Amino acid sequence: MLKGYRPDLEKILANWGLKPLQAEMIKDVFKVKTTDGIKNLKVSPLKPNRLIFVHHAIRHLIKSGFNGMNPIIPAINGETYVSDGRYAYTLFDWIEGRQCVFDNQLELVDATRILAEMHRHTLGFSPPPHSNMRRQLGKCLEHYKERFYNLQEYQQTARRMPNDHFAQVYLENCDHFISLAAQAIAKLKQSHYQELVIKAGIEESFCYGDPAARNFILTPEGQVFLIDFDSCRLDMPIMDLVKFIRRVMKKHHWSYPTAQVIMDAYQDVNPLTEDELGVIKAVFYFPQKFWRISTRYFHRHGDFYPDSLFRKLQKCLQNKEAFYRFPVLFDSYHSGPGLNRDV
């Protein structure tokens, strides 16, 4: 993001009354040794309406008692960020540690529990009406219908591309993925999704949005912290849980026992209702990864090159049998007392 751009850290940190002694750029943050300890200076594109939403979400979590994150350090003028006209800068205390390793079951469980704990503290969030909320609440069924039609359209397109390797592999495999997409839509319609959308709107909860391993930091003391809330949005927290499990499953070959571990750990902290579990089961039928790769190929999205996408498709299909089985196995998931909670 900052390629070729060198911010004036001394001028920026003066807004907090700090002087940088040493700085190291790590992705989109600066690890800065200052006169008041080591700080995390986070860099974001300057979009005030979006920053307002993200910073209000962070403040809400801190105020509600969530201790799995560091609070924003306000500037001298009381603002949560400063700008140099091109980027916005937010300051936190630096968290010493490393990202969680999800191949380690203990770390996977600890990360799951901190996500569940965060979800418990999202309730009652009322963002400023003029902020950019990235509202996704209630859009899941609509999105799945659109993507189901996408998969059918790509099938027709691929039939007109007999010499294209990607298109031919797509044709060899798409029927079953299209069938899974149809099942996801049918099951979501049969679930209590719409009622849960209404409930989430009343409870005023939100999603973290990016539950990737890199955002779960394990300290030397064994505490897990969440970082980088830039993707938070208005949606049901269970959508975070689905995304979290999907990301873990890609690395664990869609191992149902691993998903059970995650679900059980989550419910130890934040029990799910039977209706919530029904929505999660429906959503797992949708072939999200297959759809995304196909869309990037047939629509030539972004900086993704055809050869790279063909390799991604092949990698995705290496686990297709496990992926086919996973939602059926997950349908059998049951748990303890959380399932009897009133909706």
Give a quick summary of the entry.
With 343 residues, this protein is an alpha+beta fold.
What's the CATH architecture name of the largest domain?
Alpha-Beta Complex
Global mean pLDDT: 94
Contiguous uncertain segments of 5+ residues: 337-343
Q: Mind summarizing the main beta sheet? A: 5 strands, antiparallel
List the total number of helices.
12
Question: What's the CATH H-level superfamily name of the largest domain?
Answer: Aminoglycoside phosphotransferase (APH), C-terminal lobe
The H/E string reads: HEEEHEEEHHHHEEHHHHHH
The portion of residues assigned to helices is 40-55%
Structural class: alpha+beta
Number of domain modules: 2
Radius of gyration: 22 Å
> What is the subunit arrangement here?
single chain
Question: What is CATH's topology name of the largest domain?
Answer: Aminoglycoside 3'-phosphotransferase, Chain: A, domain 2
The end-to-end span amounts to 43 Å
Structural description of this entry:
- With 343 residues, the chain is an alpha+beta fold.
- The protein has 2 domains: 9-94, Phosphorylase Kinase, domain 1 (2-Layer Sandwich); 105-340, Aminoglycoside phosphotransferase (APH), C-terminal lobe (Aminoglycoside 3'-phosphotransferase, Chain: A, domain 2, Alpha-Beta Complex).
- It is built from 12 helices and 8 strands.
- It has helices spanning 9-13, 48-63, 105-120, 140-159, 165-190, 193-203, 237-251, 256-269, 274-283, 288-298, 306-318, 320-330; strands at residues 20-26, 29-34, 37-45, 82-83, 87-93, 98-99, 216-218, 224-226.
- The chain has a 5-stranded antiparallel sheet with strand order 1-2-3-5-4.
- A hairpin with a 3-residue loop joins strand 4 and strand 5.
- Helix 4 packs across helix 10 (288-298) and helix 7 (237-251) runs antiparallel to helix 8.
- The longest helix is centred in the middle third of the chain and has 26 residues, at 165-190.
- It is globular, with a radius of gyration of 22 Å.
